C-alpha cells in the first residue's frame, strides 16, 4: 500500500498493473480512460489485459508460496506469445531483452520480467496473502519472507482474526 516504495525498475509497471483493481470493493481502474492511460491499453484490449493481470497476481502469490487465487492462464503461456530479442548497445556493449514486435502491454511486461530476472528482483514481487487484498508489493525485507502488503493494515487484520479465533 502507500507506505511502500514502488518496485524497482520495470517491475513497477507490473506491480501497478496488478494493483489496478481493489478486490475487496471490485473497483477497477481499468474501467476508466484515465486508469488505462498509464498502461497504453485500449478498451477493446481489456479482456486480455485483465487476463494478464490475474496471471501476474497468481505468479506474485506463487513467489510468496501461495496457491493461485483462482484459475488463471499460466503466465508463461501469455508471455510466450510476445517474443523478445537481445539488443546490444554498440557504444558500451551492454545488452538487454526488448520486445521483438509491437510494444504491447504484454510485451512490456515480458521485457520487465526479463530485466527483473537479471537484476535478481523477480521473486520479490509478491502478492499479499490476505484473500480480500492480494495486492502486489515488492518485498524489501532482508530475508525476503514478507507476507502482507502492509504490516499495519493486512498484517494487523490477520492477527486480529487469529486473536478472535483463540477467544471463541
Ligand atoms: Zn494486503
UniProtKB/TrEMBL annotation:
UniProt cross-references to InterPro entries, sorted A to Z: ABATE, ABATE_dom_sf, Znf_CGNR
Superkingdom of source: Bacteria
Pfam families associated with the record: ABATE, zf-CGNR
UniProt domain Zinc finger CGNR: residue ranges: 124-167
Gene3D superfamilies, per database record: Jann2411-like domain
This protein's name: Zinc finger CGNR domain-containing protein
Organism: Streptomyces cadmiisoli
